[in-house]
Amino acid sequence: MRRVDTRSRQRGAALLILLTVAALGAASLFIGAARPDSLRRERELRNVAVVGQAREALIGFALAHGRLPRPAASSVNGAERAGPCDSEAACNGLLPWQALGIEAGDAWGKLLYYSVTPVFTVAPVIRATSFGNKTVLTRDSHGAVIYVAGYPVCAPGTPCVAAVIRSAGRDNFGIGLDGRAQANASSTNIDEAANQAAVTDFMQLPLNADARAPGGEFDDLVAFIAPTQLYDAMARARVMP
Question: How many other CB atoms sit within 10 Å of the CB of residue 162?
Answer without folding.
Answer: 28
